[in-house]
Amino acid sequence: MARFRRIDVFLKMEATGIIPVFYHPDIEVCKGVLQACYQGGIRIFEFTNRDDFAHEVFAELSKYATKNFPEMIMGVGTIMDASTAALYIQLGANFVVSPILHPETAYTCNRRKILWIPGCATLSEISKAEELGAEVVKVFPGEVFKPSFVKALKAPMPWTNVMVTGGVSPTQESIEEWFGAGVSCVGMGSQLFPKEVLQRKDFQFIEDKVKTAIGILQAWRVQHTK
Ligand SMILES: O=C(O)C(=O)C[C@H](O)[C@H](O)COP(=O)(O)O
């Protein structure tokens, strides 16, 4: 498995802008999705810890990524406690994402110099996360917040780096409104990986969707870079 410095993980997250958020119990489906994402231009991938044996799938996927796509930075999401974070770090996770703000998870990640991205829903939680060392926070669930929340929070806290996950889709409207509001990156799950597409193992569909989303973001960034 490949280990990346946490500053490089954050910079790659910002540069790629779009982070696939994915879980499937079938390792062959995971490999197909990872390859499609890579070919579509993704260099950072969040595997979510969605059942009791998800770590076994991650262990294999992480090795597969290192061997076939050594630039791909693998991380884990849906981490609720420090011991699960430690398990995934041992298996090759280069960043740890949570739906919640859990200080003990921060201590474990910081000790190992692994990027920790807690889920936050208020400015007080964001501020606490930053005191605990979070370089970037996950505003979650995005479908509840809307982009205006990000814009408003960046007025008093312009230093805050925001990732938003939940309800983001690979469309021009969704990408432009979130990046326009000031996010550093977005996580995308169900919209990039519709169930029926996974059922028919249509990895080309995923690659095309990813390419389109990255193209939209790049075009937006060219227009909006000062
Ligand atoms: O548990 C986590 O760590 C999460 O990030 C939660 C979900 O995976 C995202 O909310 C995906 O949301 P959709 O893109 O709307 O499918």
UniProtKB/TrEMBL annotation:
The entry's keywords: Carbohydrate metabolism, Lyase
Pathway: Carbohydrate acid metabolism
GO MF assignments: lyase activity
UniProt xrefs under Gene3D superfamilies: Aldolase class I
Keyword Magnesium: no
InterPro entries listed in its UniProt record: Aldlse_KDPG_KHG (IPR000887), Aldolase_TIM (IPR013785)
Record text on subunit structure and interactions: Homotrimer.
The family this protein is said to belong to: Belongs to the KHG/KDPG aldolase family.
Name assigned to this protein: 2-dehydro-3-deoxyphosphogluconate aldolase / (4S)-4-hydroxy-2-oxoglutarate aldolase
Organism the protein comes from: Thermoflexibacter ruber
